[in-house]
Every structure is written in C-alpha cells, then in structure tokens.
Amino acid sequence: MKKPLYLIIALLFAKVHYAQNLTGTSLNLTDPDPIIILNATSAGQYIDNNGTNKGWPHIKIRAYDQQGGPLIDKWNITYSARENNLYFYNWSQNAIQLNFEDSGDTFFPIGKVGIGTGTAAPTASLQIKNPTSHSTALEVGPAGNSHSYFRLDRHTGKDGGILFTEDRTLKYQIVSREADDLAIFSYTKGDIVFDIQATTGNIGIGTSSPTEKLSVDGTVLAKKVRVSIAGADWPDYVFSPNFELRSLQELETYIKANQHLPEVLSAQEVEDNGLDLGDMDATLLKKVEELTLYLIQENKEKEELKQENKELKATLENILQRLIKLEVGDTDN
C-alpha cells in the first residue's frame, strides 16, 4: 500500500532538475516548472502532472483518437492553494465534481453529475440503488441482524419499507402497503399496529381498515378530550319560550313502546355504530334541561295545589265557625 502512495506523492510534488526520455512511453521532467507526463507519441492515453500554476499541482487523465479528438473528458485531481483542499475536477465541463476540504469545513460536496451507487446514471445528487429487485437497498449498522440498525428494503412482489430495529425478529417495521397506505406492523405477528390510508387520510391504531379519520381498536386513555360542536346544536333552545315540551303522558307512552328516551340512541344502534360524544353530550344535556322544565312545571302545579288547599282550609274553617254559632243560638232558645 505504501509504494503506490509514494508514487502519487512523487507525481504531485516532485521538483526535478534533469530530463529523461524513453521510447514509446515517455517520462519527461523539466525545470523551472515541474511537469511530469506519461504519454504516447500517437493516439492513446496519458497522465500528466501540470505544475504551471505553481503551488497548484494537477494530475490529468486524457485519451485521444487518431484525429486528435477527445475520447474521454479531461479529469484533474487538483490540490489547490487553499490549505488542505483536494478537488476532483471535470475540465471539459468546467465544474468541480467532488472535492474534500479542510479549512472550508466541506468534506463531501457533490457536483454537477451527482453520485450513484448501483446505477450508471444517477438522477439525484446522491442516489443509492440496488440493481436487483430482491435485495436491501441501504443498511446502516453493525454486521449481522441481531443489533440496532437502519435499513431500506425492497422485495419482489412485496411492498417497500423502512425498518428501525434493535432486533428485527422482535420489533416493528414501517412499510408502504397497497394503495400507497403507510403502516407500522409487528414483524413476528404480522399485526398492523398503525395504518394511514392514502386515499381517505384515515388513521387506524390496532386496525388495518380505519373507517374514520382516527379508528382505534382498543381503549383510549386521556386526561382531557375536547369535542367541537356547533352552537346551534347545543340545547339552550330548550329554555326558549317557543319550545314545546312533551307531556308526561306522551313521554310515558314513548318509553313503553321503545324502552329508551326520545332522541336517545337505542342499545342496538350504539352496538352497531358506536356513539358521537358531541351529539350524545348535547342529547343528554337536552334531557336534563327537559327534566328541569318538568320539575319547574310540577313545582308550579304543586304551589297551585298548596294555594287551593289553603283556600279550602280557610273556607272550611269559616263554615265550621258559622255552624258553631248556629248551635249556640239554638241552645239559648
């Protein structure tokens, strides 16, 4: 490994004061500007170290045909005047394709062509591709599958996925499902634990077929739940003077026929469709307010009865006093 490294260093930085020519392939060293050229006298390939810009050593790789036309682009490996900078430079396109810097803090910028792995024609600045359809595209982590790692998978006939795991046999995978759905599922059990449907935007927890914006197959524990409801649907209208309250006789008839209050869901409806918390709270409040009206009405009737009873007592007392007076008068005679 050391010999090739020494050769490159010599090509880049050597300043020699004599020249030597060889037949066919030439080794040509001149002074004062150090130029080292490995070249053919006719069409072919050559490498040259062009030091004409003093302090900016280059290695150029070129190839020409019999007519002197370029077969490949000129590529330079350049050490610039800035401290610790190294460039891979496409001379014909006049653009830096890849460079490593130290003083500028840039270590791996990507130029015009981009970088591709597994593809000869990258379409992005950095594209990692596996030419086979049944393989892992990208994996970051230690050797083996028993440790933490990050992986991008694509298998023939299967959906692609992103896998974050400590142990792939025990943890979960994030995959793209049919119809572009996104799902998190248990690798060992195959159970969908989280599903987002692309067409509806519905989200499912514990279910792969959410029917609402959020469908949960299980218990939800929360410290607070806020439900939005339109003001017109909130039953303040029960206390309006125009509200018509059912009579208790009508209410009794309805309850006997249906076994539940009017406007309240039946047990079968709740079992089949669940219940809307906002609507149910509004309905229950309406029933409480109606019950309040019944109590107010009953209280009024009670007060009226009390007043009538008081008046009846006064009348009876008056009649009793008159009877007593009549009896006393008869005794005196």
Provide structural commentary:
There is one protein chain. It is rod-shaped and about 140 Å long. It has three domains: 2-128, no CATH class; 135-216, no CATH class; 231-332, no CATH class. Residues 1-35, 37-47, 50-54, 70-75 and 104-112 have low confidence and may be disordered. It contains four helices and 17 strands. An eight-stranded mixed sheet has the order 10-11-12-13-14-15-16-17, with no helix packed on it. It has a seven-stranded antiparallel sheet with strand order 1-2-3-4-5-6-7, with no helix packed on it. The protein is an alpha+beta fold and 333 residues long.
Tell me, rounded to a whole number, the average pLDDT. 68
- Please give the radius of gyration in angstroms: 47 Å
**Widest sheet: strand ordering:** 10-11-12-13-14-15-16-17
- Protein structure class: alpha+beta
What percentage of amino acids are in beta strands?
25-35%
Net shape: rod-shaped
Number of helices: 4
- What is the share of helical residues? 25-40%
Tally of extended strands?
17
The string of secondary-structure elements, in order, is: HEEEEEEEEEEEEEEEEEHHH
Largest sheet, described in full?
8 strands, mixed
Give the termini separation: 155 Å
Number of domains: 3
